[in-house]
Design brief:
Helices cover about 60% and strands about 10% of the residues. It is of the alpha+beta class. Among the domains are: about 130 residues, Orthogonal Bundle (Butyryl-Coa Dehydrogenase, subunit A, domain 1); about 120 residues, Beta Barrel (Butyryl-CoA Dehydrogenase, subunit A, domain 2), CATH 2.40.110.20; about 150 residues, Four Helix Bundle (Hemerythrin (Met), subunit A) (Up-down Bundle), CATH 1.20.120. The strands form 3 sheets. Strands 3, 4, 5, 6, 7, 10 and 11 form a 7-stranded mixed β-sheet that branches. It has a two-stranded antiparallel sheet with strand order 1-2. Helix 13 packs antiparallel against helix 14 and helix 14 runs parallel beside helix 17. The chain starts with 7 loop residues before the first helix and ends in a 10-residue tail after the last helix. The chain binds flavin-adenine dinucleotide (FAD).
Length: about 600
């Protein structure tokens, strides 16, 4: 069984050396966000993840949740860890100081959250949803709603959820049926059943604030007739104290493949009192504040699980003795060599390392742009950052969660038969990761969002903007001798991506089905090119340090070697995905549905 160790050296590389967040924040006048402060937070996050959360990860999976009389009881250690997280003030880290938060940048907090996710992803989901719900109330609520709910959500005394899904309405929210009847006093009676609601009921907090999508009586059909409501589990009195129960009941919890310690609830709302958030019939666009935040969070979940799987794999590969190296024994005093001597095992390990470390840069770089989109005093620059975040969100969500499937599956493979049995713990990672490509909009829906809305919806401008950013890095690093081939290769891939975009755009003008047919492969092309960019800038930092004779030469040499591996063995996947994307819709659509299978 592996033990989680926070990858502080690599996190520091990205935070300080690749992205230089201290300089970034100071350029916005946030002098207090200096390296010492950022370091202190990272070190404490590492300690909390390693010593408080990691010990609860396996027990949470094995013990699971108990459902008794409508109550959900969390596994041993969860409440204690949650209370400590709140008491130590971590839960308030990024919230608005007006409501009791500390106002630290949410983009930087991704580095902190990565460690908590690796420590125990199921545990992190409780506070992650509260954070997203609070942000949504803050963005769209009246002062009354904000003052009533935010202080206690920020402090962690109350939790939050997102209630979208119904039994017949998952990806297609336009057909949801939950009703909202005006009560004449500014509130609404919410009636309906939501399914799959994460943390819909639990024993960590005294109250749970549900954000519920529902329809008003005269609402137009489809997504244009959906409104968003704040529906507390327990009503809140004028003085802020808790009042009567609000007719919100958890009917059952699901028995799942993974994340056994996160309750996935059927929630019944029976004339529960709710308050409108945002405008009538504009609920879906308000909910997008929450969904976009949560989508990046799910991408980070994929990354955090990949990190854990990679750690388990490298430890096992150095330990497990099987066979001899093809070039003669490397551990002659032992009955066999460690499996890390075998080229195929190295292929798997380096694939994991390249996807994990490159994925970290992609996540934190997106976080840097999120912060810029809020903090930059220049309006144009804020807009550019916000456009970039919108473009990168489906890529971070889908590409990094698909990568987590590959990385966790490779972890099982590297462990051989021992990976398939429970004792080594890596099968839990594969099970836990499996939900990440599904929830918060399946990866199929993310791909449609990228190609349909973000690319074609902007007339291709978003790709040009992204390509421009990548080309800046190519110009910067192309002259460094050991990086010249990488920069040239990335330049070719950016051209290939641009050409593919134009071709698909032309095809989609003739047949809309071409978008759906190409989207998943297109997202993979975009993801691999963006990760190539991340590896080029990481290699740029490493080359500079090595040229300056840095004492940590081995660390930086390993970075360069991994960058080269990525360019040699992973980036070429772009060719296969581009060919598939170009193959068109006909081959997918011409086979009649009734001819897919014959009895
Ligand atoms: C553990 C867990 C936790 C969850 N937490 C929450 C939560 O907190 N709140 C909440 O509201 N929901 C939650 N969900 C629900 C989750 O977001 C949905 O399961 C997800 O959005 C997919 O919906 P669905 O399951 O109905 O699948 P469907 O929408 O039926 O999709 C089935 C398949 O069809 C594809 N598909 C569907 N429509 C299209 C289309 N137009 N184009 C192309 N492909 C399409 C999908 O990609 C998928 O592969 C959770 C689910 C799980 C399992």
């Amino acid at each position: 069984m592996y033990a989680y160790r926070a990858p502080l050296r690599d996190i520091r590389l990205v935070v300080h050396e690749v992205l230089d967040l201290e300089q970034h924040y100071q350029s916005f006048g946030r002098e207090e966000l200096n390296k010492d402060l950022l370091e202190g937070i990272l070190e404490e996050g590492a300690r909390f993840a390693e010593t408080v959360l990691a010990p609860t990860n396996r027990t949470g999976d094995e013990h699971g949740l108990r459902f008794e009389d409508g109550q959900v009881l969390t596994p041993p250690g969860f409440k204690e860890a949650y209370d400590r997280y709140c008491q130590d003030g971590w839960i308030t880290m990024c919230a608005d100081p007006q409501y009791g938060g500390q106002g630290l940048p949410g983009g930087f907090a991704l580095a902190f959250s990565e460690m908590l996710i690796s420590g125990n992803m199921a545990w992190k989901m409780y506070s992650g949803l509260t954070e997203s719900a609070a942000l949504t109330i803050q963005a769209h609520g009246t002062d009354e709603l904000k003052n009533r709910y935010l202080p206690k959500m920020v402090s962690g005394e109350w939790a939050g959820t997102m209630c979208l899904t119904e039994a017949h309405s998952g990806s297609d929210l336009g057909i949801l049926r939950t009703k909202a009847e005006p009560l004449g006093d500014g509130s609404y009676a919410i009636t309906g059943t939501k399914i799959f609601i994460t943390a819909g009921e639990h024993d960590l907090t005294d109250n749970i604030i549900h954000l519920v999508l529902a329809r008003l009586p005269d609402a137009p059909p489809g997504t244009k007739g959906i409104s968003l409501f704040v529906v507390p589990k327990v009503l809140v009195n004028e003085d802020g104290s808790l009042g009567a129960a609000n007719g919100v009941k958890c009917g059952s919890i699901e028995h799942k493949m993974g994340i056994h310690a996160s309750p996935t609830c059927v929630m019944h709302f029976n004339e529960s009192k709710g308050w409108l958030l945002g405008r009538e019939n504009a609920g879906l666009s308000c909910m997008f504040t929450m969904m976009n935040h949560a989508r990046l969070g799910v991408g980070l979940q994929g990354h955090g699980l990949s990190e854990l799987a990679w750690q388990a794999s490298i430890a096992y590969a150095n330990d497990r003795l099987q066979g001899r190296s093809l070039t003669g024994p490397k551990a002659p005093g032992k009955p066999a060599d460690p499996i890390i001597v075998h080229p195929d095992v190295r292929r798997m390990l380096l694939t994991q390392k390249a996807l994990v470390e490159g994925g970290r840069v992609l996540c934190f770089l997106t976080g840097r742009e999120i912060d810029s989109s809020h903090m930059n005093p220049d309006e144009e620059a804020r807009k550019r950052s916000s456009d970039l975040v919108a473009f990168l969100t489906p890529i971070v969500k889908a590409f990094l969660t698909d990568a987590s499937m590959e990385v966790t599956s490779l972890a099982v493979q590297i462990h051989g038969g021992h990976g398939f049995i429970r004792e080594t713990g890596v099968e839990q990672l594969m099970r836990d990761a499996r939900i990440t490509p599904i929830y918060e909009g399946t990866n199929g829906i993310q791909a449609l969002d990228l190609l349909g809305r973000k690319v074609f919806g902007t007339g291709g401008k978003s790709v040009q903007m992204m390509a421009g950013r990548i080309k800046d890095s190519i110009d910067k690093f192309g002259a460094v001798p050991e990086l010249t081939p990488l920069a040239a290769e990335l330049g070719k891939r950016v051209e290939q991506w641009g050409k593919l975009t134009m071709e698909l755009g032309a095809a989609a003008m003739k047949n809309h089905e071409e978008v759906g047919a190409a989207a998943a492969d297109y997202l993979a092309v975009a993801g691999y090119v963006c990760l190539g960019w991340c590896w080029l800038v990481s290699a740029g930092v490493a080359a500079k340090k090595l040229a300056a004779g840095d004492a940590e030469a081995d660390f930086y040499k390993a970075k360069l070697a991994t960058a080269k591996f990525y360019f040699d063995r992973i980036l070429p996947r772009v060719d296969a995905h581009a060919a598939a994307a170009r193959a068109g819709a006909t081959g997918l659509m011409e086979l009649p549905a009734e001819h897919f299978a014959f009895a």
